[in-house]
Amino acid sequence: MVDHLFLLAVGAIGWGLSLAMYRLIAERTGWPLGAVQAGAPAVPVGLGVISLSIGLAFAASRGLTHGGLVIVVFGLGLALFWSGFLRVGAQSALLLAPLAAILLLVAWLMPAAT
User: Fold this and answer.
1) 103, 8 in Cβ contact below 8 A?
2) Quick check: 5 pLDDT over 80?
């Protein structure tokens, strides 16, 4: 059985953190910035922080005994991989972070159909 909410929360945390931190990392390392990152830096940071917050809220609602800590650890790992190894590919987090956060919110807050 696949826990889709778990995967969406990991994505929201990982891609959100990657998005929020990418400009800071890129400026220090000389990596390229996308048009949105360079022209309107508040937009990606805001989207990243919102996505990260939604993922962390879900992890907190799960609690430590039901995978909340694992969600956070895997999310941090995803952010490290996405930003550190993919570099320019991290720009795709502009789409992936809000998408994961929206899908997580919809699936989490909607009662299961019976």
Assistant:
1) yes
2) yes
pLDDT tens by residue, 31-80: 888 888 889 989 999 999 999 999 999 999 999 889 999 999 999 999 99
**Structurally, how many domains does the chain consist of?**
1
Domain encompassing residue 90: 4-105
Q: Which structure tokens are listed for 93?
A: 């987090």
User: Could you tell me if residue 114 is inside a domain?
Assistant: no
Q: Cα separation of 73 and 93, whole Å?
A: 18
CA distance 46 to 49: 5
Pair 86, 11: CB distance under 8 Å: no
Q: Are 44 and 94 in contact (CB under 8 A)?
A: yes
Q: Does an H or E element contain 114, and which?
A: none
Is residue 36 situated within a structural domain?
yes
pLDDT at 4: 93
